[in-house]
Amino acid sequence: MEKRGKIAMKPLGDFVVIKPINVSDGGIILSQAEALGRAEVIAVGPGAYEHSSDNWHTAVKSLRPKQKVLYNAEMGLPIDDDMLIINITNILAIV
């Protein structure tokens, strides 16, 4: 659970809290305004519930805090001056 000031944040379901990183690489600047962004994972929800033939279970999650990821920068909701909450399906790769 990530603590911001006095508020503790733990995303629900398959949501992830990320902190976008502006990166300059070979003259190309990736920012939130572009289609592809780079970010650090701050907190990860427990995962979505999936139904199998015998019961409901939590889907396996592959993200952990402090990992760097590429994400669809057109998605996500700002939750702080420098953080977004985004569905894990909009995280494209771990870098």
Oligomerization = single chain
Going across the biggest sheet, name each strand in turn: 10-11-3-6-9-12
Unreliable stretches covering 5 or more consecutive residues: none
From the helix content, strand content and strand pairing, which structural class follows? mainly beta
Averaged pLDDT: 80
The profile of the biggest β sheet is: 6 strands, antiparallel
Order of helices and strands: EEEEEEEEEEEE
- Level-2 CATH architecture: Roll
CATH superfamily: GroES chaperonin
Number of helices: 0
Q: Tell me, what's the shape?
A: elongated
- Termini separation: 22 Å
CATH topology: 10 Kd Chaperonin, Protein Cpn10, Chain O
> How many β-strand runs?
12
Query: How much strand?
Result: over 45%
- What gyration radius follows from the Cα positions, in whole Å? 14 Å
Helix content: under 10%
Report on this model:
The chain is an all-beta fold and 95 residues long. The protein has strands spanning 2-4, 7-9, 15-21, 23-25, 28-30, 36-44, 49-51, 56-58, 68-72, 77-80, 83-87, 91-94. It has one domain: Roll (10 Kd Chaperonin, Protein Cpn10, Chain O). The chain is built from no helices and twelve strands. A six-stranded antiparallel sheet has the order 10-11-3-6-9-12, with no helix packed on it. The protein has a two-stranded antiparallel sheet with strand order 1-2. Strands 4-5 form a two-stranded antiparallel sheet. Strand 7 (49-51) and strand 8 (56-58) form a beta hairpin. The two termini are 22 Å apart.
